[in-house]
Amino acid sequence: MVYAVWLAGLGLLFWILERIWPRRPRQPFFRQGLISDVAYVVLNAHVLGVAIGNLSIPLIAWLDGALAAWNLKSAVYLGVMSGQPFWLQAIVLLLTIDFAKWCIHNLLHRVPALWRFHQVHHSITDMDWVGDWRFHWMEIIVYRGLLYVPAAFFGFRGEVMFAVGVFDTLIGHFAHANLRWNIGALRYVLNSPEMHIWHHNHPETGPTNRNFGLSLAIWDWIFGTAYLPAHDPARLGFNGIETYPRQLPGQWIEPFRAVFRR
């Protein structure tokens, strides 16, 4: 089944769940930025993903040639998981790549040049599942570039990567959803709305740079970046969000404009 079908099915599922069990009942469905965020779903989930994937083919071919010329290809493409059963590859892929993404997410917050691009995602002020897709296209390049070596090292099967990708989308939608579900002890394992909302809190409402987990919450609990009070933050965003662009294409342009304003 193609990813677009899964994406549509999960979107419909969370749209229904948000209507039945809303976390913030007074949050309007036609919230600010909704149309722009729907455009992000189309662009980031399909159009840009395909475009960057096609552009990366000659780049990877060049990199493979360079590694071969330097006699390093065998050191990078070890394929340590090749031949292993589906379930084992899925577990190893989920743990290793999710931890790598947790580290990259940290970098997006702590490196000023990367934070300017990640601010696009944190410009969300009314959280729902659609907001999961509001992110700058530069993030796709950063994530794919930094994940190239570990993915090549393990050599996971395509169907395993697809299955884990669908799972990541499921948890990503769930974590951003306007959904009042308490998952109990699973909050120590999986990302959730009650935890991820505090990743998006405005600095005026509590500590920032917390809850970096994408699909798994375990890394935040292990490394001391978890933060989960009993209430939700009163406000989302960052300092200066009042003057930040509200829609595309301004949100895509803003990180580059910020460079020239320095």
Structure characterization notes:
Helix 1 runs parallel beside helix 7. The chain has one domain. It starts with a helix and ends with a helix. The model has no long low-confidence stretch (mean pLDDT 90). It is mainly alpha-helical and 262 residues long. It has helices spanning 3-20, 34-69, 73-76, 86-110, 112-122, 137-154, 158-176, 193-196, 218-223, 250-261.
Structurally, how many domains make up the residues?
1
Number of strands: 0
CA radius of gyration is 19 Å
- Report the sheet with the most strands, covering strand number, pairing sense and barrel closure: none
What integer is the average pLDDT? Answer: 90
Tell me the span between the first and last alpha carbons.
Answer: 47 Å
Helix content: 55-70%
| Unreliable residue runs | none
Q: What's the tally of helices?
A: 10
Structural key phrases:
mainly alpha; 58% helix; 262 residues; 10 helices; single chain
Short description, anyone?
With about 260 residues, this protein is mostly helical. The chain has ten helices and no strands.
Reconstruct the topology from this structure.
Layout: H1 3-20, H2 34-69, H3 73-76, H4 86-110, H5 112-122, H6 137-154, H7 158-176, H8 193-196, H9 218-223, H10 250-261
Helix pairs in contact: 1-7, 4-5, 4-6, 4-7, 5-10
